[in-house]
Amino acid sequence: MDRIKNIIHETIAKAKGGSQIAFSNLLDTFWNDVYGFQLKRTENENDAEDITIQTFSKAFDKINTYNEDYEFKTWLLTISKNIHIDLVRKRKRTVLDSWGGNEAVKKVLDDAPTAEDRLITEQNLATLLQHIKKLKPHYQQVINLRYFHELSYAAIATELDEPINNVKVKLLRAKKLLAEVIKKKN
Fold first, then answer.
1. What is the pLDDT of residue 40?
2. What is the 3-state secondary structure (H, E, C) of 96-150?
3. Could you give the C-alpha distances from 86 to 77, 83, 98, in angstroms and in order?
4. CB 139 within 8 A of CB 147
């Protein structure tokens, strides 16, 4: 048991140093724990997957704040729990806001997109596609399969003939790189 803890501590130290392989190893080691935790909380596979991905993204961004006096798994589950709480609060707020009075009723009655709305949507999509084309081809492919073809992680893994955790990591990296490209543009 101590040997496993030592390996995990070494992997965390490498991750703090920026090692992508260490990040992948941590994701592989703790994915099922975080995903299972969220699946019990949300009772929804999509929400559990999304929250788990957000958990690892946030954990990897904040890896230098991890205190080794505590278990890494506990730290991850705490991050995951907080993300879930934020999601629930956001959904409640959205529901409450949507019932905020007569304006909400008018909005529902006049919900058909106007020609201007369609044009704006098309322009935004064209801009997004230009940003995506700036990514490496394997990142373009995983984003295309997930968000434009709406494939599940398992289906993408089958399509690419890669392990599902590789697909999740690749998608996580692709989203981060895309966000950086968009920030540079704005």
1. 92
2. HHHCCCHHHHHHHHCCCCCHHHHHHHHHHHHHHHHHHCCCCHHHHHHHHHHHHCC
3. 14, 5, 18
4. no
Q: Is residue 77 within 8 Å of 30, Cβ to Cβ?
A: no
Helices (H), the chain: 2-16, 20-42, 45-61, 72-98, 102-109, 115-132, 137-143, 153-160, 164-185
Token pair 């920030």 in the structure block, residue: 183
Residue 30 CB contacts under 8 Å (≥ 6 apart), including other chains: 72, 73, 76
Report how far apart the first and last C-alpha atoms of the chain are (Å, whole number). Answer: 49
Exposure string (b/e) for 78-112, b if CB count within 10 Å is 16 or more?
A: ebbbebbeeeeeeeeeeeeeeeeeeeeeeeeeeee
Instruction: Yes or no: say if 77 and 34 are a contact pair by the CB < 8 Å rule.
Output: yes
pLDDT for the residue numbered 164? 86
52 vs 7: CA distance, rounded Å: 23
Tens digit of each residue's pLDDT (9 = 90 or more) over 64-109: 998 888 889 999 999 999 999 888 888 877 766 665 545 554 454 4
Quote the distance between the C-alpha of residue 143 and its chain's center.
12
Q: Is the CB of residue 56 less than 8 Å from the CB of residue 172?
A: yes
